[in-house]
Design a protein that fits this description.
Number of helices: 10
Oligomer: single chain
Number of strands: 8
Shape: globular
Strand content: 15-25%
Helix content: 40-55%
Radius of gyration: 21 Å
Structural class: alpha+beta
Largest sheet: 6 strands, antiparallel
Amino acid sequence: MSAASGADAKTAGTVQRVVHLLRFLAEAGQEVTIKQTADALGLPMSTVHRLLHLLGSEGMVHHDPASRRYQVGVEMARISWLIASSRTLKDVARPFMQAIVDRCNEACLFVVHLPATHQVSLLEGINSSHPLRYEMQLYTAHSLLWGATGRSILAFLPKEEQAAALARGEPSPGTGRPAPTLEDLRKELRPFLERGYVTSRGEKVVGAFGMGAPVFRADGRVIASLCLTIPQMRAEAVDEARLASLLRRQADALSRTLGFRGTYPGGAI
């Protein structure tokens, strides 16, 4: 390896550690110690201390000398606010979500793929007017393996990314079912590919029926999904075919707004 390539690899490794560190601080939601951070990231305490010091000098991290703990800094919060307040992907998705809610009066979720961690996250949600509904946890990372929110993206990913998601090995949060084998997973996903949408019952939330349809960007890669979450007591009476058609039409329209011009999974709507 040349000196230049070695330096590039070292820089890439440092950047990756910084990203992981900032993600951990943001998701912790509270002050953390160097040891907690080092244990969570699998890094030496000396490395974590050095990175925290560098980030602190830029205002990205705040250090409390009294408690000797760290948390997100003012500058990181300011940058996050600037990003969140600008027109983002969720702003583009919201009219399509609202169209779904207006027609079925059930909660619609906009879930995005997190390729770096092989997970998904709820970016936006519009609730129904029903008194019985679910609390929406925005920006929290969840497994790709379970529920319509995960599998509506997982089913349309390349096989190597499906395998990487499976390697995380998370059991179902709702049923406790262990992660399937790769062969069984692909058998379970095959029908979803053919019909263009996913359904699930209680895999992530006990007593919930989920349905999701993928959203594609211009190059044909799945990047998100539109999902419905319905309490089981109401789900028994819904017309699945009607809801699936509604969901797929709006997911297709959103994909085309994002520049996708390919064939939508499952054939013509």
